[in-house]
Design brief:
Number of helices: 8
Oligomer: single chain
Radius of gyration: 19 Å
Distance between the termini: 29 Å
Strand content: 15-25%
Helix content: 25-40%
Structural class: alpha/beta
């Protein structure tokens, strides 16, 4: 049984901007891996790094924002190419939830099957949470998937997500491949009963 993801708690970081596409999240030249392991170091690479590998001024290079688990951003997050590497790079970087005004549909689906809740909130409400964590980066952000709220300090906002994705997360059925593996014995028993199944 997969973990039931009722909420995600941790430090937050606000990466402003609308239409942050998957090539910005994980540049295509890093998509030459055999597995997704190690992709975390390339998340937002061109946003974070100069050509010589030194750090740019960016929310993700701010020492106060290191080890953040909750990413906040703008509208249409994850648009562009449908590359699965984008949410994989965010997961391996350490993010466990994303709060944005809206998401590209395929990015949203790929994130959900990794167990990364992607919840939507208004720009004004996201700015409220961003202000809290900018003032005190150690403030814990709580993305409550069960009750559809995001809170930090004394600020609590409402958020939304499609009910089917929310149900999958809170019931621990967010990865269909894992469900198939868990049901291997039952599937084999059913196959044995099929008249057209050959041993």
């Amino acid at each position: 049984m997969l973990e039931k993801i009722l909420n995600v708690k941790g430090k937050g970081v606000f990466v402003p901007g609308n239409d942050i596409d998957t090539d910005r999240i994980i540049p295509a030249r890093f998509m030459v891996c055999i597995t997704f392991e190690g992709l975390g170091k390339y998340a937002f690479y061109d946003e974070r790094k100069n050509a010589d590998g030194t750090d740019k001024v960016h929310p993700l290079t701010d020492p106060r924002k290191q080890n953040a688990k909750v990413l906040l951003s703008g509208a249409n997050f994850g648009c562009g190419s449908s590359r699965e590497h984008a949410p994989q790079s965010l997961w391996h970087y350490g993010f466990r939830a994303v709060v944005a005004e809206s998401f590209a549909e395929i990015f949203f689906g790929n994130s959900t099957t990794l167990g990364i809740p992607c919840v939507c909130a208004s720009a004004e409400d996201i700015a409220k949470i961003a202000s809290v964590i900018e003032e005190n980066p150690e403030t814990e952000v709580d993305v409550d998937v069960d009750n559809l709220t995001v809170s930090a300090g004394n600020v609590s906002i409402k958020c939304t997500m499609p009910e089917n994705a929310r149900n999958a997360l809170i019931s621990g059925t967010w990865d269909p491949i894992a469900e198939l593996i868990d049901a291997e014995a039952t599937t084999a028993q059913t196959a044995e009963k099929l008249p057209y199944f050959e041993k």
